[in-house]
Design a protein that fits this description.
Helix content of chain B: under 10%
Structural class of chain A: mainly beta
Order of helices and strands of chain A: EEEEEEEEEEE
Mean pLDDT of chain A: 94
Number of helices of chain B: 0
Distance between the termini of chain B: 37 Å
Order of helices and strands of chain B: EEEEEEEEEEE
Mean pLDDT of chain B: 93
Largest sheet of chain B: 7 strands, mixed
Number of strands of chain A: 11
Low-confidence stretches of chain B: none
Low-confidence stretches of chain A: none
Number of strands of chain B: 11
Distance between the termini of chain A: 38 Å
Number of helices of chain A: 0
Helix content of chain A: under 10%
Radius of gyration of chain B: 13 Å
Strand content of chain A: over 45%
Largest sheet of chain A: 6 strands, mixed
Oligomer: heterodimer
Largest interface: A-B, 26 and 31 residues
Shape of chain B: globular
Chain lengths: 114, 112
């Protein structure tokens, strides 16, 4: 039973346009959400996160939106750049302190076309 | 500063053999996590250490898998009697008392 789902395995966007990556979750205990970016042959790189007490967090070109009632979050990248082409993973966690195992979605391959 | 490092980057072994995978966390990070990523999937949690003790090993698939962190820094994931289904990328992550985990590059394990 997948608790974190990324239903779009791939997404293509033109350079300069907005990329929107989506993620749904089923476990209402999740209270912290993260997005990671992964290039081939590298480990996941932390991108941005959001606590369940917020509905938006912004960092430069990256914004994460959280809709708790819909159990849905999204990552917006604007403007998209060719270097953003990578696999993006949504992850969720709950617990206290460091005792927070991450539950990942299956990833979305983003391709930004020049 | 230095990030999480993992060795070896690639490991090819034969079915039934024993393997050890090593993780060096970011200096000062007290929490260390192991994940396994199969092709086309996201990473899956295996085990979590807080200091030297395994605080949560609920993700280990069976008793062929074991991990240690004797001095609260470097960790070793040990797999006995490897099977072809163990082939995957094994990822290590560390964190310092917070919610964000920082990942190493992974070890790609291939069991022939």
């Amino acid at each position: 039973d997948q608790q974190v789902k990324q239903n779009s395995p791939s997404l293509s966007v033109q350079e300069g346009r907005i990329s929107i990556l989506n993620c749904d979750y089923t476990n209402s205990m999740f209270d912290y959400f993260l997005w990671y970016k992964k290039y081939p042959a590298e480990g996941p790189t932390f991108l941005i996160s959001i606590s369940s007490i917020k509905d938006k967090n912004e960092d430069g070109r990256f914004t994460v939106f959280l809709n708790k009632s819909a159990k849905h979050l999204s990552l917006h990248i604007v403007p998209s750049q060719p270097g953003d082409s990578a696999v993006y993973f949504c992850a969720a966690s709950y617990g206290s302190g460091s005792a927070r195992q991450l539950t990942f979605g299956s990833g979305t391959q983003l391709t930004v076309l020049p | 500063g230095a990030g999480v490092s993992q060795t070896p980057s690639n490991k090819v072994t034969e079915k039934g053999k024993y393997v050890e995978l090593r993780c060096d966390p970011i200096s000062g990070h007290t929490a260390l996590y192991w994940y396994r990523q199969s092709l086309g999937q996201g990473p899956e949690f295996l085990i979590y250490f807080q200091g030297t003790g395994a605080a949560d090993d609920s993700g280990l698939p069976n008793d062929r898998f074991f991990a240690v962190r004797p001095e609260g820094s470097v960790s070793t994931l040990k797999i006995q009697r490897t099977e072809r289904g163990d082939s995957a990328v094994y990822l290590c992550a560390s964190s310092y008392g917070g919610d964000t985990q920082y990942f190493g590059p992974g070890t790609r394990l291939t069991v022939l």
